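hey so i finally got around to running both of the ones u sent me last week. sorry it took forever, my laptop kept dying halfway thru and i had to restart like 3 times lol. anyway pasting them below in the order u listed, first the sequence line then the structure token line for each. didnt double check formatting much so if smth looks off just lmk and ill redo it

first one:
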Amino acid sequence: MDENIVELNIAIGGISKELLDVQKALDAYREKQLRKEAIDEEAIVFVTKAERVIEKAESGELQLTPDQIRRIKSNLVKILNRLQT
């Protein structure tokens, strides 16, 4: 039983780190955007991390809720559209 709890804690820690990395990248992008600074680098960092998390979630490596996936994808689409203009 203790072994299952340890494995669950490790899995939760992995998910938390992945989501925190994506959130930090998004925050950095938004901060630069507010200051009207060059945002390309932060956008690329977010896109890279978000794509990796989505791929892991879709392959079953990372357990995310449908809402978490939807929100990441929504931000990803918005940022990609801004990069193209």
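and the second one:
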Amino acid sequence: MADLKTAEAKDWIKSLIEESQKAKEFSYCPYSQLRVGSALLTEDEKIFTGCNIENACFYLGLCAERTAINKAVSDGYTKFKAIAVSSDLEEQVIPPCGACRQVIREFGDIPVFMTRMDGSYTRMTVEELLPLSWNAEYLKKNE
């Protein structure tokens, strides 16, 4: 991962956050009224966005992060550089839920940018958000 303090990194971080904020405009959230958007950056600089999609049968809803990941994977992308998550919360950042943390973890320990409406953010890795996470290493047979 490139140094996240360089001007180039700050540009793509800003773009990623802006795309996550745009994505929440498409949220379908009649129950919670909490719009969430996500933007996922592939290693070759393509951005996939997603929004939350609620369902009256609550557990069938889909979070923004998993929507973005599913779109990327269904288009053949599995190597990611970072993901951003935004909402309409003004005073706090929006973190990925536990299920999203696990799904993100499937694709590596990438930076997660959790944002506020003003574009400010907190950056954490998936390992920081989900310590001792379950991954493919546990499924390999002992040799």
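quick thing i noticed on the 2nd:
The chain has a mean pLDDT of 92.
anyway thats it, ttyl
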